[in-house]
Amino acid sequence: METKTLYDANLNNLLTARFAYESLASAFAKHIEAWQTTVVDRLERSQWTGSTADQVHGDLRAFTGKLKAADQELVLVAAALGEAHRSVALAQSKLVQVMDDAKAAGITVKPDGGMTWDNDRNSSTFAGPGAANKAEALSLRLRDALNEADHADQEISRRLRHFVDNATSGTGLDGATAEADRKANQARMDIPDAKATPEQVKAWWNGLTPGEQEQLIQNHPEEIGNRDGVPAVGRDEANRLTLKRRHDELQSEFDQLGPEPMQRPMPGEVVYAESLEHRTWREKHTDLEEKLKGINAIQDRLNDTVSADHPKSYLLGFDTEGKGHAIVAINNPDTADNVVTYVPGTGARLGSIPGDITRSDDMVGAAHRADPAKTTSSITWVGYDAPQTIFPQAADDSYADGARDKLHSFETGLRATHEGGPSHNTVLGHSYGSTTVGYALRDRGLPVDEVIFVGSPGVGVDNAKDLHVDPRHVYAGRGDADAIEWALPENPADYVKDGASEWGTKITNGFTDLVPYGGFHSEADNHLAFGRDPANGHFGGNEIPTDPGTEHSDYWQGFSLRAMGKIIAGK
User: Fold this and answer.
1) 385 with 432: CB under 8 angstroms?
2) Considering only CA atoms, which of 224, 405, 188 is closest in space to residue 315?
3) What Å distances lie between residue 229 and 212, 326, 385, CA to CA?
4) What H or E segment, with its residue span, contains residue 139?
5) 3-state class of 516 per DSSP?
């Protein structure tokens, strides 16, 4: 749909059509009532009997059923027209807001949706140095409004064609058909149960108008915001509502927590032993403080002015259960050419999200440098309960086990909601996050094109071919100063470790890469806590080069970041 078409749409026509069908259905219902009382009921009371009477009574009942079915269809037509009015009005209001905001910023929106502005600093109508960024943000909002209107147009047209077909063929006079239509209209707003696949959820969502989608977002934000198969724009809107509400609730709890209880020495002691009262207060205080920190960081990123360095972000998942969970995308994964899902490891939680979002921003930048012609969405996926301590939690694979289905559902959902041709998808696991990714690949398979492991303690298999991905698309990197090499198996004496490596440089297109001569970072067949080290040559994948001195959290810089950018961009 074009900008001018939506802007000029006369909503009164839709409203008039709706009222006309409602009046028609009301009048028709009165005719049915009159028919029932003056003809059918009177004949029933006439005491007319016999085979002919039975035939007539049956015919009259069948005819009455057809009349009632027709009336039900008219009611549903009126409802469809009402939904058309609501959905187009919603899209039109968003468009008008874009136009108003553009005018205030000195930006002109052309009929085809293009945007122009005065770049002359000496001109009285100069739009300002940030005009390009503002225009980019406005363009995204404009596209969303036009997409909503186009979707409403297609969905309402489909519904009305169905009623036209029923009327033309006569099936609309069948009571069973009319009842099925009524139930389908009623069930449309029922959220699919937990057994529904992301593909089924997407099909259900597509069958709703933007008005119906908005109603569900407003009434059930937590369910819609965390449902794989719902497109990113809908999830983002729902989760922003939940984010604000939970922020206000947690802030209220924090404010009411009161001052820290005083510590008193135990009887006969001079040292202060923590009381139950103090420990309870401290744990609650820390939990609330961390969650508020994470929420505020997410809100700040969502509110960032859209620019080349800070693309638009989307909140694809959020809750405060346990340590809290959040899924934050930089750029829209449903429209991006490349999509990478980053799974952090030990310590990942709502309170740690700021640093992880920064890494997503870094990966978007690296992928853009690798291929400026393509758009990349980088998703920080803290959608599972990660271990919070190195020992004993990070030595336990139950956290990876518990994340398998969640990660599989999320990745499947990305495929289901993507617009146009398939995107080039990568999943990247860091530290224990690599174990989580490996277990999901091993046990469920993931619909991805590339797999990256960095700083891994093992991924649950000893060979890349067991990940159900072509080993040529499996990459791993481990820095020479990464302490993860000491995440040993239960019986480390069974394996040999060899840190020897020889490094050289290779110049490609003016860039210098650090590459290993004749093999991988470690030629030894060393095993770690959860299987063979994926960064050694025996694993069967490819190695990512790292800078000398790379420690466990240093992969988002230098050689390794550039390598990740190339992989994410399909280069």
Assistant:
1) no
2) 224
3) 16, 17, 21
4) helix 131-169
5) strand
pLDDT digits (tens, 9 = 90+) for 463-500: 999 999 999 999 999 999 999 988 888 655 454 444 43
Q: How far apart are CA 5 and CA 145, in angstroms?
A: 12
The residues that bridge with 55 in the sheet, in sequence order, are none
User: CA geometry: angle at 69 spanning 65 and 72, to 5°?
Assistant: 140
In this predicted structure, what is the pLDDT of residue 371?
98
Which tokens go with 334?
A: 């449903």
Q: Residue 159: is its pLDDT beyond 70?
A: yes
253, 239 in Cβ contact below 8 A? no
Residue in the structure block whose two tokens are 């550039």: 562
Give tens-digit pLDDT for 67-95.
999 999 999 999 999 999 999 999 999 99
Domains of the chain and any CATH numbers: 3-119+127-187 (1.20.1260), 289-568 (3.40.50)
Q: Token pair of 439, please?
A: 């277990």
Long-range contacts of 395-399 (CB under 8 A, 24+ apart): 395/487, 395/529, 397/435, 397/439, 397/460, 397/530, 399/432, 399/436
List for the chain the helix, strand, coil content (%; round to 5): 55, 10, 35
Task: Report residue 367 CA to chain centroid gap.
Answer: 20
Close Cβ partners of 463 (under 8 Å, ≥ 6 residues apart)? 471, 532, 539, 540
The answer to whether 109 and 116 have CB atoms below 8 angstroms apart is: no
CA atoms within 13 A on the CB side of 291: 25
pLDDT of residue 381: 98
What is the 3-class SS of 489-500, one letter each residue?
CCCHHHCCCCCC
Secondary structure (H, E, C), 40-93: HHHHHCCCCCCHHHHHHHHHHHHHHHHHHHHHHHHHHHHHHHHHHHHHHHHHHH
Choose among 337, 334, 293, 332: nearest CA to 313. Answer: 332
Report the alpha-carbon distance of residue 39 to residue 32 in Å, rounded: 10
Q: Which two tokens stand for residue 30?
A: 């009165």
Which residues fall within 8 angstroms of residue 338, CB to CB, at 6 or more apart? 367, 371, 374, 375, 376, 377, 423, 424, 425, 426, 568, 569, 570
Name the strand (E) or helix (H) holding 318.
Answer: strand 313-319
Report the DSSP beta bridge partners of residue 328: 315, 380
Tens of pLDDT along 512-562? 343 432 333 444 677 899 999 999 989 999 999 999 999 999 999 999 999
